[in-house]
Structure formats: structure tokens, C-alpha cells
Amino acid sequence: MGASNSANLDINALERAFKLFDENGNKTICSTEFANTMKELNGYVNPQLTDLCFQLVDLNGSATIDKKEFISFMSKIQSIKSPDIYDLIGCAADVNGDHKINATEIYRVYQCLGRTDIPQPMTVQEFVVKLRKGRIGGKL
Ligand SMILES: [Ca+2]
Ligand SMILES: [Ca+2]
């Protein structure tokens, strides 16, 4: 294995993080494993927020997070210092990683929430601020 100085992702760290989540070692993370590990890492987190985060990280909607989806998610949260659940949701919602929540991405979030009152596209930063204030999803 050559040095990976071009990649800013530490594959070993990613493997360790993935294994932390993948409690039964079946190479996918289910929603229970995700919720358990989030709780271990962050203390109590509103289960609805954890669930929303899980659904957004699960890009293909298979109800499990595979390594590819996990790495895609981790690569987006890299730049954030001590991200909390709101930051994590913001990153997960930004599927293409351009720091904006475009119309397709915002639709996906609202679909996960079972809502149809889709707001206008916004930046990830704006999205996270609204999320913190409870303005995304209302009931969260
Ligand atoms: Ca999946
Ligand atoms: Ca985006």
C-alpha cells in the first residue's frame, strides 16, 4: 500500500470508525447500531434527529449504511471541528458536498421527515442554523 498523501482521508481511521458503528461486524451499519454509537459518542441525542441523520447518510435508501456511504459522509464532516448532530445532519443532507442544500437535496430531507412543505434551497450553514432553531421539520 503506497502513501496516501493526496487523499486527505485516513483510511485506517475510517476503518476504525466504521467498526465502531458496525457492532455486529456484518459490514453494514443498521439504524440501531447507528443510534447506539451516536449515543456513545454524543450522549443523549433526540432519536428523531439520529434517525433523520441515518436516513440521509443512507444514500441508496437500503436501510443500512455501507462503507461507501459511510466514507462519503465522513469525508464531508472532516472539515468541521467537533460536529454535533445538527452539523452531521447538515453534511448528510448535502449529498453532492457543494456546501449547499439544493432543491433535490432539500426535497430528500423533507421526504425523510414525511413532509411536503419544501422550503427554498439554502446553504448548509443556513440549513444547520434553521435545524438548530427547530425550523426544519417543525416537530424535531
Ligand atoms: Ca445504504
Ligand atoms: Ca449539495
From TrEMBL:
One of its GO terms (molecular function) is calcium ion binding. Residues 9-44, 45-80 form the EF-hand domain. Signal peptide: none annotated. Keywords: Calcium. SUPFAM superfamilies: EF-hand. It comes from the Eukaryota. The keyword Calcium applies. InterPro entries: EF-hand-dom_pair, EF_Hand_1_Ca_BS, EF_hand_dom. Pfam families: EF-hand_7. This is EF-hand domain-containing protein. It comes from Hexamita inflata.
